[in-house]
Amino acid sequence: MTLPTLLAHRLAARPAERHWLIDALWADEAVGILGGEPKSCKSFLALQMAVAVAGGVPCLGRFAPARTGRVLLYAAEDASHVVRQRLAGIAAATGRALADLDIHVITAPSLRLDVEADRDALDATIAALEPTLLVLDPFVRLHRIDENVSGEVAPLLAYLRDLQRRHHVAVVLVHHARKGGAKMRGGQALRGSSEFHAWGDSNLYLRRHGDQLTLSIEHRAAPALAPISLHLATNGDAVALVPTARPLADAAPAVVAATPASPRTAEQRIEEQLASAGAPMTTTALRKACQIRNATLTAALAALVAAGRVRKDLAGYLLAH
Known about the structure:
32% of the residues lie in helices and 22% in strands. The chain is α/β, with parallel strands linked by helices.
């Protein structure tokens, strides 16, 4: 028996509009890790992603969902009333009611990916509900294996990859960072085997510095964005992670004046060109005007769009305000 093959030019080409599940934040039908230290709002961000996909609202107020649909969630560490309260607060922050969101919460007391019966039950649940996004939080409560042993971790991650491929569902796996990993890169700081970092198509890493949170984003098949500062904002019952406003440009005029020869960043050059153009510019026009490589341009544009400084319409890119 031979394996099925196709000529390369006959492989399905994914339409551009299906490249993302959440623009620049999570790839469509991607598996990956949402990692971070304890108390770094990992679960909160996972719930905001759930609300974004189910409600068609921007995640973190900036990352618009490219596709919406049902969400299936398993929150192993939080009581059901806590999950409900958090989801309701996040929904309220976007102007939505929780009752209007198609989010299904698994209420089983335990779910273990290293137990065949539980794997079969999860598979059957996904087949029945057909979710667009599956959130599992956190990995440490989903097994009794040794997370440091690649041979034990790999089969569980392979099972989740198989779910993704067979059911066309994006999978967000919340996972802890190791102690003492604050100075490491996000992927290297994940607790346990290096399999976690290698597995993800899209990975998000949260780090806390006092009251300030920093979100790092990486993708297997797209440029990484510049780190984003976040904080938890509350307004009555509405609670959500939101980007921290950038410091005003005139906050330190002496420093700016003292370094007139500093090279302009790609982002600054793009913003200057868009400001002088007065009309949307295509990527081809921007690349020629800024004289930068295509990869640099793509990464810079993604960062500017995520930061809310640039937006894209059918004619091209233009300043957001």
